[in-house]
Design a protein that fits this description.
By secondary structure, this protein is α+β, with helices and mostly antiparallel strands. The chain has 9 helices and 7 strands; from the N terminus they run E-E-H-E-E-E-E-E-H-H-H-H-H-H-H-H. The chain has a 5-stranded mixed beta sheet with strand order 2-1-5-3-4. It has a two-stranded antiparallel sheet with strand order 6-7. A hairpin with a 2-residue loop joins strand 6 (about 105) and strand 7. Helix 7 (about 195-200) crosses helix 9.
Length: about 250
């Protein structure tokens, strides 16, 4: 990420940025406040917030790009969950905190609920006794490199998922389904992940692919949900069954 030295000289334009502010210690409710920001080519939302901070406008936000915790700057940008470090600044943008979690201050939300669920459901391989010499299929290695190891747990997909918003569905959400698939495909995992996925609400997924649309890394947790459901159905049939191929699920 390019960092601009402040103050910015010779801006190409001046944009208006609207931020939903809230300090629970002093404010009764959130309120909108607008700021003027000088724009230069490829300037991102996170850089605009850094500029405002440098000017004495202390808007609370998270950014840890240099500390290997990518994904912490997720927020609602014009109503859509996105990473602030990966979104080019535009005029009249509206910034809000993610709506699924309590607001600690301004654009910073409480992520303890995410961490707790990760711990409670055990989205990591539970080791089994295996022979010393065993092989891992190439497709599993590819899946880890291209899919499972790339999720940055930014929670953008959780914000976009309509099924996980419905408390009656008890669906953990697409991010957890993807992490569960990562554990299920680990060669040393011994848990019955198909049963666990069912218990965590995968049947409530409506296959809208909103999770894929908002994922900053172009991952598609809905595909992993479909794979879990296919395996569960096949096991219940207790006979070989071939599903029709669909590009959306492959």
């Amino acid at each position: 990420m390019t960092c601009y030295l402040l103050p910015i000289e010779n801006p190409e334009a001046r944009y208006t940025l609207h931020v939903l502010r809230f300090n629970p210690e002093t404010d009764e409710k959130p309120y909108w406040r607008s700021y003027q920001v000088p724009f230069v080519s490829t300037m991102t939302v996170i850089e605009a917030l850094e500029y405002l901070w440098d000017q004495g406008e202390y808007i609370a936000f998270r950014t840890n790009c240099r500390e290997f915790t990518c994904g912490s700057c997720a927020m609602l940008i014009n109503g859509k969950p996105q990473l602030a470090c990966d979104t080019i600044l535009q005029d009249d943008m509206r910034l809000e905190p993610l709506s699924r979690y309590g607001v600690l201050r301004d654009l910073v939300v409480d992520t303890e609920a995410i961490k707790k669920k990760l711990k409670d459901v055990k989205y990591w391989p539970v080791s089994a006794n295996r022979e010393k010499n065993f092989t891992v299929p190439p497709q599993v290695i590819d899946a880890y490199g291209q899919i499972y190891s790339r999720c940055i747990e930014c929670a953008c997909c959780l914000e976009a998922c309509p099924a996980s918003f419905n408390e009656a569905s008890r669906f953990d959400g697409p991010m957890y389904a993807l992490l569960l698939a990562r554990a299920a495909n680990h060669p040393l995992d011994a848990m019955n992940r198909i049963q666990q996925a069912s218990e965590r609400g995968i049947w409530a997924c409506v296959s809208c692919f909103e999770c894929a649309d908002v994922c900053p890394l172009d991952l598609s947790p809905a595909k992993e949900v479909a794979k879990f459901r296919r395996k569960a159905i096949t096991q219940s049939l207790k006979r070989p069954f071939t599903f029709r191929k669909d590009k959306r699920y492959e």
